[in-house]
Amino acid sequence: MTNVLIVLTLPEAVRMQYFNHVKDHFPDVKLDMVDHHSKVDPYIGAAEVLITFGPHVANHVFEKAKNLKWVQALGTGVDGIADQPGLRRDVLLTNMHGFHGAPVSEAALLAMLSLARDLPRSLRQQARRKWDRFPVRLLKEKTVGIFGVGTIAAELAPKCRALGMKVVGVSSAKRKLDGFDAMFGREELAQVVKEWDYFVLLTPYTPQIHHVVNAKIFAAMKPSSFFINLARGGVVDEDALLDALKNRRIAGAALDVFAKEPLPEDSPFWDMENVILTQHQGGFFDGYPRFAIPVVEHNLRKYLAGDLKGMINVVKR
Fold first, then answer.
1. Is-catalytic flag, 232?
2. Catalytic residue (choose from 261, 297, 298, 301)
3. Strands 166-171 and 143-147: what pairing?
4. Three-state SS for 185?
5. Which end of the chain is more exposed for a tag (fewer CB within 10 A), N or C?
């Protein structure tokens, strides 16, 4: 019998969608689920299959997973899994693809509009019952730079252009793409960022781009510009970002992801008036399991049949 362990730190109703589907469709597997990686000990030693998100696990999980053969990541990003030293090289890793364009592009638009109109200021005044009118900025005729040109960027770009924005892409592979007015290579970031009003970070994390967005980049940005991180915390030098925000070298930021998650309670980001902070919500929407579960089912069927070549979204590492 194949032992399958689900580790998900999510609301119970969401966790149970994954659990119940696997239980109903694969009655012959031994299925367990925990809501935090600190609770894996009774199950992880026997687990052959692990279903989880990268931020929901830790290295001790993989160190104890002596029988592990396959990890199904429920997100596109596999940092928190692939970069853990305890994960053996022979363990198969698969992830999700193709359905993050709508939620994350909408999160980017929300962030840009909220920063442009200083929504936090209005909410603070609402809490104080204070009538305080102030002029807001428009997105129209502004320039948005998108670092990381993949499925999400391809969906975001035309939405930005529909609002009258100029759209610039930065990618490791320069190419023409519908919705973009210009495209530059990653090595040109420090130069082209000077013209941007909004810097939207969407690039996946890899060790090669650790802290690629650093003090040099923030120094090059316009003082009136905004930074939006919907990618991964490790891409950004957070100390440099804090310094840029505190000293108003940039106007503000909308941050959805961080180097350490959950974000510690003593992080200065929580209290900054020029920061909009969300809790890794960019791709987390009410219909997510509807898209993710079919991938889990397909791969689990192939795995149990011994058809590893038939599995989809295999991550090369």
1. yes
2. 261
3. parallel
4. strand
5. N
